[in-house]
Structures are given as C-alpha cells and as structure tokens.
Design brief:
- Helices cover about 30% and strands about 15% of the residues.
- The radius of gyration is 19 Å and the shape is globular.
- It has six helices and six strands, in the order H-H-E-H-E-E-E-H-E-H-E-H.
Length: about 190
C-alpha cells in the first residue's frame, strides 16, 4: 500500500501528486524480485513462465534470467501477444520457437491457439505469470492470464502471479481518494 502525506491543505498540481506516487513506489520491491528470494521453495518443481521481454526485475534483468540464476528450474516459457520479444505487431501471429537467452522452448499463446494444451502443460508443477501491466486491464494480456489460469485449474497446476506496483492504479486511486474521479476506474 502506498501512503501519501498531504503537504498542505491546498490542492497540489496533478504532476506533483504523480511525483509523490512514483517516489513512494521506488521503495516497493516488485513481486518477481521477492519471488527470486524464495528459490529454495521451488528447487524440485518444474516451472513454466508466462512472460515477455518487458518483464524485468527492479534492476532491469529479464525476469526469466533472474529466476533461473536464482535457482528456479524453468522448463518452458509461454509468450503472449507481441511474442517473447514484446515487439510483434498488434494481433499478429506469433510462432513457437526457442528462446535465444535461455535456450528454453517458447510456446506462443498468440499463434495457433490462445490456451495452452494438455500436452504443453504436462510435466509442469507450477506456472508463474510475469507480464508487466500499467493497470489498463482491457488488453489481451488479461485474457492470456485468464486462459492460463483456466488451464492450470483444469490440470490441477498451481498458478502464481508475482505482480509489482501498478503505476496507473496508484495514481488513479490517489485521484479517486481526492474526489477527482467519479465514474472512472471504479474498482481501483
């Protein structure tokens, strides 16, 4: 939770409030960084990671690299729309391939199908979802997460989402708390 101290009774400019939120968020350790500290709990698990190149630690390291260096036995990667590179065109087909960074197989969830198959989920003990989000939950990444969660439920595989700070949500919540938003972002 982010606590904002009001500096005066006067309304500060909006950009000042944003700056306060981002400064306060710098002290928050993202979920992926916290998860890296728990590698021993996953030592004997076969982990799949739903990710792309936008998913990094607070230090800027690719989350898949950080998890593997921490000792996570990742055996498969799943990628969403725009592919593992996060540079694919909107709505463009993404093919399965081998990740050049980890040499792991990458199963596209924006190619022949949107849902992982039973075969693609076999041999997996846990799925971790790490795709950054700015709080705009209407993009295809939400659907990717939903479909993967449904596949995990169908095959009795635990699903983890080590989310980090969501800047838009923090800003919007601050605006909502001060009455600046009435019917926008109702559930933030």
């Amino acid at each position: 939770m982010i606590h904002i101290k009001r500096l005066s009774s006067k309304r500060q400019p909006l950009f000042f409030r944003f700056a306060i939120n981002f400064i306060a968020m710098e002290s928050i350790l993202p979920g992926i960084d916290q998860l890296c500290l728990q590698a021993n709990s996953f030592k004997y698990k076969r982990v799949a990671l739903v990710t792309n190149n936008a998913a990094t630690t607070s230090g800027g390291k690719l989350s898949r690299t950080a998890l593997m260096e921490a000792g996570f036995p990742i055996v498969r990667l799943f990628s969403p729309e725009h592919g593992l590179s996060a540079k694919g065109d909107d709505g463009a087909y993404q093919a399965h391939h081998i990740d050049k960074v980890t040499q792991l197989p990458v199963v596209s969830l924006y190619g022949d199908r949107l849902v992982p198959s039973q075969q693609e989920m076999s041999g997996i003990d846990c799925v971790i979802y790490d795709i950054p989000d700015v709080g705009c939950r209407f993009y295809t990444y939400l659907w990717t997460m939903t479909y993967v969660m449904e596949a995990c439920a169908a095959f009795n595989i635990p699903f983890m989402w080590p989310t980090g700070p969501i800047p838009v949500a923090a800003i919007s919540a601050n605006q909502k708390a001060h009455g600046w938003m009435k019917h926008i972002a109702l559930h933030l």
